[in-house]
Queue: 4 jobs
Job 1
Amino acid sequence: MNKYKHIFFDLDKTLWDFDKNSLETFAEIFNKYKLKDKSIPSLQEFTDKYTVHNIHLWDLYRNGDIEKKVLSVKRFENTLNDFGINDQKLAKELASDYIYLSPLKTNLFPHTHETLEYLRNKYKLHIITNGFEEVQHRKIKAAGLGQYFDQIITSEEAAYKKPDQRIFEYALGKANAKSSESLMIGDDMEIDITGARNSGIDQVFVNYSMIQHNEDVSYEITEMKALKEIL
């Protein structure tokens, strides 16, 4: 597509396999702190409980209702409470280990490197992510993704979180890009796709799970390498 000059990517669950990397991290933490001996039946049950709390607290964080440091610990504190464990010290230790270990995991979705290698010779590539500043940069470095991107915009840096139109405007300004010449690629319909559309940016919905929807999307793919057909 000759109209595009700038391609913006989401990071988590689009390029970086968040679920797989998180599960590996939880397995390390689960064993390190012997959580099975603390009345938590299994890693899967721990992960399932955590996921529910994490999604809820991230919604609050995106809306500005809680601070980053609260989110980081509260998700573990609430998970432990579900198993009858009231131990804030342990919750803080789990939170600290998770923040340290998780970004070091390097699982990417299939064909990520080859697709980015193909695209970077034709377009300016950038990242827009809602993740924590220091965490996201460590992920990108550990996974060898930094070589592909001109600008990496985090919500902390921009002071706005997707889908807020202002983070997209900030990203366009930092990349010296026009919305009409840009494309946003992401896995979350509300956060990535609707946010970009409201900012006048075309979108690619990365629908790995092949969910059914009736949303208005510029393009849709189910695997990363399909971007080569669009671009």
Job 2
Amino acid sequence: MKIAFYAPLKPPDHPVPSGDREIASALLQALRRAGHDVVLASRLRSFDAHGDALRQRRLQAVGRRIAERLVARWQQDGSPDLWFTYHLHHKAPDLLGPAVTRALDVPYVVAEASIAPRQRGGPWAAGYALAHAAIRAADMVVFVNPADVAQVRKARAQDAAFAMLAPFIDVARFGAAGVATPGARAAGAPLRLITVAMMREGAKLASYRVLADALARVADLRFELTIVGDGPARGDVEAAFAALANRVSFLGAREKPEVAALLMQADLFVWPAVDEAIGIAFVEAQACGLPVVAGNLPGVAAVVADARTGLLAAAGDPAAFADAVRRLALDAPLRARMRTEARAYVQRHHDLPAAAQRLDAILREAVARHRCAPAAALPC
């Protein structure tokens, strides 16, 4: 199929790295692996971080013009077989997909859509209404984060279609992780901890502060922490780890092959994941055979098998996180079992080939449902 792909929050080729960009890129890769011809419909970012009503109105006007141009072009040159929007919500509604798919009468699929009822009023009320309408209009909603299911299904008709898609990476390209082994280290050497995350205000900085607090509580253990990541909050992150400065190495942002190599040499991946929606970093760590300690949130629990590939601690609780780190630090056989299981778990549940096959089946169901919809004058 010819698929029009759109990511209103951040396009997959955006220059700033993030988990959102990683997932968008992975979806493109899976669609193409399944044999589809994927075109990027637009790079329009509908994101409004501050609830600016004027900015929202301007974005909506731009969106209408772009949608009209897309419809005119595709009516002349041949329309796509399906429109796929990744990640829409009240701060980044889909300003293109609903209008284009109505005009062209093609299936409309959305992935990682979320609804926050408290945003029905207030500065993002317009974005909330647009996101809500788009979610209701979709032929298929694909859930990546289990936390979104309840509210989104409540917003849609009782018989509306939905599907689950596990977060995934291309394990074969991620540093040959399937054959990784930890580097040799001397007996009694410090435990090698690692985390990989952007440094910015909000949830990321909160996670770094929880991590610093937790590790201060296990300062009696011998460990070293490597932090991979950078961003505007780096100064605040470094300040949070001031008491552990002699144990922490800040490596800045690194490319994927180097990240994979660093993960393979570590003993434990640690990240509290405060308000984390989907933790692709956890998938990458486990693909490298690395046990995980993380905060217990739905999006994290969807990619980390608690007590099998890592330990999930109460979200935002430094004491609980510290206890989990201590347990794995002192139990080398458990870490070894988790290391082996982590690789196998990711290959079974979060690898690209299975995701491509699953996504292809979901889209073909969406096309079939669209053809059978009452508005479509086609026989089922």
Job 3
Amino acid sequence: MKKSPQISFLKADIQNFPFSDCVFDKILLSSVLQMVENDGLLIKECNRVIKENGIMVLSVPSDYIFVKALNNEFRTGLMEKYGVKGKGFYKYNDLIELLQDRGFEILETEYAPKKFGSFIHEIWLYFCYRFGLPLSHPIYFVFFYPIAILDRLGSKKQKGYSIIIKARKKLAIKNF
């Protein structure tokens, strides 16, 4: 692996960041929030370390829309298999409320994948879980990637099984 002087890695407790207040311009939480036990504390920490008007982008799984068995009978098994200690999945309104209650305003929301990509992914996930197949294998990408390109044709608001939110830290009200 090529090393870069601009990148450094740090292993830390994501619910107690070892950083000063207001030091980051942007934060990315990609499929992280649903994995932690105390999601509210994580969002509070993000608010603490991000600058005023800083941007946070996060993605979390929501309900599966085509294979309802993934929402019910398989959800617990999927969460156990991946060591999920948090909620695992979010309803849109619950996620918005969590962010707003901890000082973020919502700028944009989008679902990804869209309907077609969600359909492909849910079928794949169902068969992998049901028949004990590995969830990642190079052959899957050879087959699914060309098909998933069609998913880009969907609109931003077209519902899929994962929510992406772009939020900004609210400005603090200053007393004069």
Job 4
Amino acid sequence: MSHRFYFDDFEAGALDHDYHWLDDHEAGQIVGGRLRIIAGPGQDLWGGLPIKRGAPVLLRQAPAGDYELRCEVYAGFGGPGTRQYINTQVGLFVFQDFQNWLFFGFTYHAGQAGNLPDGDGLIVTSVLGDVATIAFYGEFPNDNARLRIARSGNGWSFFYKFDWNRSWQSLGKVSARLRTHNVGMGVKSFTAGGGAGRGYFDNFEIRVP
């Protein structure tokens, strides 16, 4: 049985002072009890050489040892004709440094995601050393979900559910030796033209054994 190590429902109207922004310090705002993060065109984060950076990611220190990271992630706000801009990713980050991190969240991609079909879905990417990999991808029509990352030693498991009352579904597991690191929420927008990417986050939670 795990217990709650940290919880933020973003109802306080201001961010906890233990958070810090990666690169962009003006991208986040609490709106209607949710954290909104906006990434401008080309505010990306990726591995390999040259390293891409500039994405707004809100981070805090992760606990030592095993833990779970949970959050409600909302992407594609706005209704018909105003959905998320193409080549935007919205979700959770486990971040050691610019060459060692994991991402789990929504992707809206077309023409820039390797051999993935154009479309929307959930994706896990890993950047370890100079190797950047799309670890898992699942095509889904949903644009919001409760996401969960579970760390057990050097194993990182990724779960989701679209119905809060249903059981967790697994997307996969990645092995990664990450040293002291941070966890949090963020948005990447890896198209140089077009509009900004955006995401909303709620009930951000860290649980430990």
